[in-house]
Amino acid sequence: METTLLRRRAADKLGVHACDWLFTDEALQQATAAQVAAHRARRLAGFVVHDVTCSIGTELAALRATAARVVGSDIDPVRLAMARHNLGAATDLCRADALRPITRDTVVVVDPARRSNGRRRVRPADYQPGLGPLLDTYRGRDLVVKCSPGIDFDELSRLGFDGEIEVTSLRGSVREACLWSAGLAGARRRATMLARGEFDHGEEVTDADPDDCPVRPAGRWIVDPDGAVVRAGLVRHYGARHGLWQLDPDIAYLSGARLPPGVRGFEVLEQLAFDERRLRQALTRLDCGALEVLVRGVRVDPDELRRRLRLRGSRPLSVVVTRIGSRSAGRATAYVCCPSR
Fold it and tell me: Are 265 and 281 in contact (CB under 8 A)?
């Protein structure tokens, strides 16, 4: 029964792999989504790759399609047995400790365990194996490490990591931060946005791109950049690529005369100093019923604000509440908007 239920849960995440694979609940939670694994595999096309924490085999399934050769190992005998079932006899698998290298001249891929008894391990030192020992063990080798998207970039520097940090989102949801050692890096920071819409195949932005993004008052549209762009610190680079500008140099909202292709935006109907009474009057005048609230740089609880406004109209609208100006002289501003979709 457990296997059947896990296969149903895995269908959207892993696609065709889900129908006859074996899982544990924890392994499925940490398994890389098929589209994200395929993206990583494309970056490793032609290499000989060793996945030293192969678990149930999701990364290896993607890597087999692009790599010159793949090898998988894991310290957990149950997950290794599941990987043998899931991948078949043609894939080389063995039991080994990730901190005791057993291959040479391979690209090492690592996905440290970040869950224990259903709870997330947030600190890199609590990963299994810990991130510091991993970096020390494979220092000087080609290394790819999947990490939590919220990992502290400054801590990576303290650990001596000097490669690329790639933040990846799938359908608008940030999934991971991936570390690429210097020999595999194409930049210092990269934001990868996969499958943002039905006909969208994604986009990449790096810190090597131009970042000449000015600061101006709001234009026709406000854009809330993909979380991967914000997390990677590439808002200015993304804005410069698409002819957008910032509303404030310290806030991640962008604005422009047109939207980037396939991106959801907010058409500005009205701008006002943030005040709940004035905002309610503006929304009532515009016949607003359902309200989406976006907040940055201001202490406002979206759910509480929506409840207090008590709107009863028929039109769905959005309001963007943000700080404009420096922290000492900044002012809270509200933009009443019509979402593009």
Answer: no
